[in-house]
Amino acid sequence: MLTDSAFIRRLDSLYLLSRKVLGGSLQADRRTTKQGTGITFADYAEYYFGADYRSIDWRVFARFESLVIKLFELEEDATIYILLDCSRSMQSKFLFARQLAAALGYIALNSLDRLAVYGLSNSLEPLLEPCRGRGKVLPFLQSLEDATTRQGDTSFNTCARIFQARHNRRGMVLVLSDFLFPAGFEEGLKFLQYHKHDIYCLQVQDINDTRCDWKGDIELECVETNQRQRVTVSAREVRLYEQAIVSWNQDLQRCCARRGIGLAATTPESPFENVIQDILRRGGLVA
């Protein structure tokens, strides 16, 4: 269960690791182009009436007899958006995917970042409205525990457009999915990136996705649409299927590499803590 005390203690261990290696943040760099009061020097500006006199650079005044104030880069709170694939194709991987989402969301909330969670299916379903703070941890975990898979083809491209219509605030968009979207993934990733979001893809596939053990005359039923089709599976069809999956996953890798999108691929056989630890030690949710 995602809300019991033993599981939360596992999440807390990951949060402590994130504080050690990333200062508590899922992103290594949150600096913005905005200028104001901060710690990282950005530029000088002429002194104006009402400006904070503590920002005056007296060394510049002593040398040039000119009053200037120092401007600094602001560090903004991060906004983390988790897009969790809730299609039927995720059924065998759904608990593992929710554990990964729980760990990343837990770190975000404890780091006082804003967090919102949505389910991907034939449309975009809100699981957790934007919130902030440690007090939202249990509602967040409960929302994941209550989440279920849904029937119907998953349109990632449609979900990306609905998401953007709801959120103009730029942030880190974490997509948790097997990425076996019927209409593909590139258009949706391109659309989110066009709107200045940072994107990280966490691909979860199991052995049933990558290998075919069927032989002979069988009737297949689509887990998402319930459509049925009789097929004959020979060694040739098995080989073509497995090659197609390899090619699909390579396309995802090339797409992310070309666009500077972070990508990690895993299976439910790996403990979710190991996956999160590896992400943190590689620098967080960055390409």
CATH homologous superfamily (4th level) name of the largest domain: von Willebrand factor, type A domain
**Helix and strand sequence:** HEEHEEHEEHHEHEHEEHEH
Overall CATH architecture of the largest domain: 3-Layer(aba) Sandwich
Question: Structural class of the secondary structure composition?
Answer: alpha/beta
What CATH first level of the largest domain would be assigned?
Alpha Beta
The largest sheet is: 6 strands, mixed
Terminal-residue CA separation = 31 Å
Q: Which geometry do the CA atoms define? A: elongated
What layout of secondary structure does this protein have?
Elements: H1 5-22, E1 31-36, E2 40-46, H2 58-64, E3 68-75, E4 79-85, H3 94-110, E5 114-120, E6 124-132, H4 137-146, H5 156-166, E7 172-177, H6 186-194, E8 198-204, H7 207-210, E9 216-221, E10 228-233, H8 235-259, E11 262-266, H9 272-281
Parallel strand pairs: 4-5, 4-7, 7-8, 8-11
Antiparallel strand pairs: 1-3, 2-3, 5-6, 9-10
Helix pairs in contact: 1-3, 1-9, 3-4, 3-9, 5-6
Give an overview in words.
- It is a single chain.
- With 287 residues, the chain is of the alpha/beta class.
- It folds into two domains: 5-27 and 77-281, von Willebrand factor, type A domain (Rossmann fold); 31-75, no CATH class.
- Helices cover 39% and strands 26% of the residues.
- The chain has nine helices and eleven strands.
- A six-stranded mixed β-sheet has the order 6-5-4-7-8-11, with helices on both faces.
- Helix 1 (5-22) crosses helix 3 and helix 3 packs antiparallel against helix 4.
- The chain is elongated.
